[in-house]
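Q: What structure does this chain adopt?
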Amino acid sequence: MAGASIFQDDRVAKVIQIGESGLMYVIGEEEIEAVRRVFQRKKLFRYQRDEGECDSFEREFAEKVGGRHAIILSSGTNALIAAFRACGIKTGDEVIIPAYTFVATAAAVLNVGAIPVVANVDEELGLDPSDVKAKITPRTRAIVPVHMDGLASNLEGLLGLCREHGLAMVEDVAQAIGGSYDGTGLGTFGDFGCFSLNENKTISCGEGGILITGRRDLYERAFSFHDVSAQFNPVRKELFAEPQVVAGSSMRVSEVLGAIMRVQLQRLDGIISGLRERKKLLMAELAGISEIRVVQGHCAEGGCGSSLHLVFQDPASALSFGREFRAAEIPFLPVIMRPAHVCWKWAPVFNAKATDYLSSLDLLSRTLKLDIDLSLTTEQTERLGRRIAKLLHHEIPGGE
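A:
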């Protein structure tokens, strides 16, 4: 399949731009042609005698990020659920998750009957290995690093804990497709990497997910769970030596979504490059400002560049500057105002207590987030950075 540029033939006017405050992905004529191709074949179901669109996307995605096996499913949440089931996580087991994540991370744990245990995040907004270590118990079965907002977690430290205690690692890469850690793709370090293809991800088909694993046995288990009848499908019988009934689900997607994602995958490098370039421009304008610290994750060069986080010295300063930014029509948002992404907003679901994550509460209450807008030109991005810097220096009274 021919490669797709970020903007189809550079005709920006023909690209549909999607996102709330910024551009997270693009859709052009090639996606439309891919959907047309599926309908012309009149084969929308994912299982085909020959390699279909979903099969091709799974193979191409695994090759792209560095995994051996991949499964496209109906959501990133279902990718996590299938991964947990494949790892043998069951009722009463404990799974450690970060205080800063999307609620689906906890919901997926609950869906397999396990108990989400919240650990603090570190200064780079990733799961803190020191707090994880303190919260490991005899019932702990897995650790879930979440690469939030395109920022890599401390995988070296967390992998060490998994090996020391014999725990599974399931990476939640929902918001970091295309990111890396020390040159290796995010999602390939643990037993599973789980990605979201939902709106506002770096690449998307509107709704969907994909998981990857390097182990054949885990792949077969996850595949059986994501499709309860997979072992009896003649197109997939080569996967299973002895078909047996599995209490699975129906998480398949159609060939339409697989076709869209094949094009989106071709755009990934260009999208990531554009986001990183714009984030670097903003950071250059903010260099040397003592009032803030810019979060870069545990591998700055491997981050997706999809967002800019400013950490202030105290919550009052973050709130005050947040108001100034909004008055100046710069859409910074306090991360604690994203109720689906901070655990104390949904902690009652699993009886968590604020005392379990006080340091995270403090850090997140001092942090503002700005989504990087891929549609801005270099000049516009630099101008935005200068405007942010002036506000931080109080050179624009009242946000004017």
